[in-house]
Structure formats: C-alpha cells, structure tokens
Design brief:
alpha/beta; Rossmann fold; 2 domains; seven-stranded mixed beta sheet; two-stranded antiparallel ribbon
Length: 369
C-alpha cells in the first residue's frame, strides 16, 4: 500500500479545475486529486469517518462523499463552512424557483432608501447603488424558509461580492474604480445561481458530511462524536494567507464578524508581523493541540495525511513539514510517506510577498497505538 504512494505523480500537472471548485472563489484550495487519491490508496477503516480539521472549501469532504465515506469538517471561517455545506448537499428541488423569485422581488424592491447594513468603510468599497442592490437580495434571501435553499442562495451572493465591489480582485486588496451598477449586481447574482446549477454535481452515494463552524483548537472528542479512520487536511501556513481578509466583506454582508475570525485564525499574517508577534513556536504549539485531538479520536491503524509547505516569517524560512513530522513522532505516530510535490505557478496568493510557495509536502502518518 505505502509503495503505491510513491508511484503516483502527485504534481497532477494536467489536472483541470473540476466543476465543484467553480462554485465560489477560495484561496489555496486543495486540488481534488490529492484527497481522492489518498482515500483510494489508504482506505478507511470500518465504522469510522474521514476528518478534515481545516476543511476550507470542502474538497476533502466532497471527495469522501463521492467515494461513499462519511466525513466531518471543521473550519473557523463561516464562508468556508457555508461553501462546504452547499458543496456536500444536493441542491434543493426548489432552488430554481427560489432564485428566480429572489431576483425578481429584489429588483422590484430596489429604491434609494433601502436599509443598508452598518458595515465598516462600506462607502469606500461599494458604490451606493451597489449597496442597495445587495441589500435587497439579502432581504429576499432571508424570507426563504428552507435552510438548504437559503444557504445556497447566500453562497451564490457571496461568490459575486468582490466582483461588484471596488476591490481590484480576489487576490489583490486594493481599491480601483469599477463601472458597476445595481443592474450588474442583479445580473451577476442570477448568473451565479445558474452557474451553481451547472457546477454542482448530484451526490448519490448516501454518504454524509458534517460541518462544524468552530476554532479547531477548541474542538474536543465529544464534538467529533465518532471514530476517525483517516485525516486529510492542509493547515494554514504561518504568515502565508489571510483567509479572513480574503472573505472579509463577504462575511460582513452575510452577517458574520471577520474581526472575530481574524483574532483566532491560525497562520494569519497580522499575528506574525506585529512587534513580539507569533513565531513558528506558536504554530508548533497549535499543531500539538491538533495532534492531541487526533490522539483521542483517530483509530489505531488509522492515517493522518497533512499537506504543508514552508513559510517565511520576518525573512526566515520555516520548515513547517519538519515541525509537523517532529510532533507526529512525539505523539507516537509512524511516518509512512513524505512526498514533495510542485505547486502550480498559476496558484495565486493574497499576499504574494509572503505566500509565494513553489512546493509542498504530503506527509502520511500511521497511528500505531
């Protein structure tokens, strides 16, 4: 089995972006081939689930479902959890009728005195008529009684927020002049809903995915509630990406608090850049808590797969794979594979100066006791 891991071209250079990844923008996402291949090669012990403690856009959970395995994912970011939920559910039968109705009623409700949420620095990032248009869509989505339908509509709206803002792009946090109107907002929302139908595959295996919106460092065995047979995850690299910033205004518009997310987000650049900020020691302590959770939940003989690259903290190159490997050894896990893979040059970082990473390691550990 382990020999098979070394026979695979883990670069997956020719792998196209698959349709579920087109549902919503998300930085540094897993390519689907990684969790899919790990599941197929390593397998999952009977009466256990696949676990992703940093589930992000839900790629591991979706691939687990497609292969017929139940899964559990945890993420601090509410936009990540929303995306994971929608990705791992079949769209409700009422979705088409719902989005057409929301669109029609929102357009009819457009008016200059529409109540707009109180959001910091809103006028800088969104034109007034754009603010009103978004607010009408949010108001109509809120009238939906079916929770699955409501969350699918929220995700569609979330996917267009940066496009209709004055933010340059999803990977560049700079204000630029855009010729976006209220009509554009409504059209983009309609297109996003139609795109969701095109890119959301039907799941027919019956496998379930449970998503928990919490800080992974606060999760206990009781939160998991079952045995874990296989972990597949990619922790946030220290000082490499700022997921909270990437989704900042999406969170504000949907009623979440990005500042709260930032304060607890592992790896976020502000934690490392301030005077007396965090270092690789803090990252090691955080990952040690994660392994302590694995100690309580992962079955004997189960596997932990962690995809991690290096970081740069104040000019120093940090060997995150080495940190993870040392922790696994301290917790009594055997390393059965350490595979280096190249990262596509087209992968964009929100903070390119700090987050440019050319390669990463796929670490595979076995729990022996």
């Amino acid at each position: 089995m382990y020999e098979d891991l070394n026979k695979i071209d883990w670069n997956f250079s020719d792998a196209p972006q698959e349709s579920p990844s087109k549902l919503h923008p998300y930085p540094a996402r897993f390519i689907e081939c990684i969790p899919r291949t790990l599941i197929q090669v390593l397998g999952v012990p009977k009466d256990s689930v696949i676990f992703d403690p940093f589930c992000g856009s839900g790629t591991t959970l979706f691939e687990a479902q497609c292969l017929g395995y139940d899964s559990i994912g945890v993420d601090l970011n509410p936009i990540a959890c929303l995306l994971s939920k929608v990705k791992t559910r079949n769209l409700p039968f009422s979705f088409v009728q719902a989005y057409l109705m929301v669109h029609t009623k929102a357009v009819s409700a457009y008016r200059r005195n529409q109540c707009v949420p109180v959001i910091p620095n809103l006028d800088h990032w969104f034109k007034k008529d754009v603010q009103i248009a978004i607010s009408t869509i949010i108001s109509e989505i809120a009238t939906q009684e079916d929770e699955d339908t409501k969350e699918a509509l929220q995700l569609a709206l979330s996917s267009i927020i940066v496009r209709v803002s004055n933010q340059d792009s999803d990977t560049r946090y700079a204000s630029v002049e855009k010729c976006i109107t209220a009509e554009d907002v409504y059209n983009h929302f309609l297109n996003a809903c139609e795109k969701m139908i095109q890119n959301k595959p039907e799941i027919s295996t019956g496998a379930t995915a449970t998503i928990i919106n919490k800080d992974i460092l606060s999760i206990t065995k009781s939160d998991i509630g079952t045995n874990i047979g296989l972990v597949i995850t990619s922790p946030p690299y220290p000082n490499a990406y700022e997921y909270w910033l990437y989704h900042k205004y999406r969170m504000w518009w949907l009623g979440f608090d990005p500042i709260k997310v930032r304060s607890s987000e592992i790896g976020a650049r502000p934690h490392y850049q301030k005077k007396n900020g965090q270092t690789e020691v803090d990252f090691s302590l955080q990952m040690n808590k994660l392994f302590t959770l694995f100690d309580t939940c992962v079955l004997k003989g189960g596997h932990i797969c962690i995809v991690i690259g290096r970081s740069i903290i104040k000019g120093r190159v940090i060997d995150n794979a080495g940190i993870i490997s040392n922790l696994a050894n301290e917790h009594g896990y055997s390393k059965v594979a350490n595979i280096e893979r190249n990262i596509s040059a087209t992968r964009k970082s929100f903070n390119p100066r700090y987050g440019k990473i050319n390669s990463e390691n796929i670490l595979v550990f076995r729990k022996d006791k």
